[in-house]
Write the structure tokens for this entry.
Amino acid sequence: MIFRIDPVPNAIETPNGRLTFIEAISITPDEDDLVAKSGADELLPRLLAANPLAVVDVTRSSLLAA
């Protein structure tokens, strides 16, 4: 998984401090290898171009598959 600040809900102030929403985005094993080598900034734009809301699809093929 990779994580990003969720762009949909805005951060909110609570009595316990500021709350920022984090989004978990599932990735395939070869995408994980790319993130380990190059960082999430290499993969995240590709993921969001294919799926702008980063909705989890457990049947999704790797974006790196030829």
Q: What stands out?
A: The mean pLDDT is 91. The radius of gyration is 14 Å.
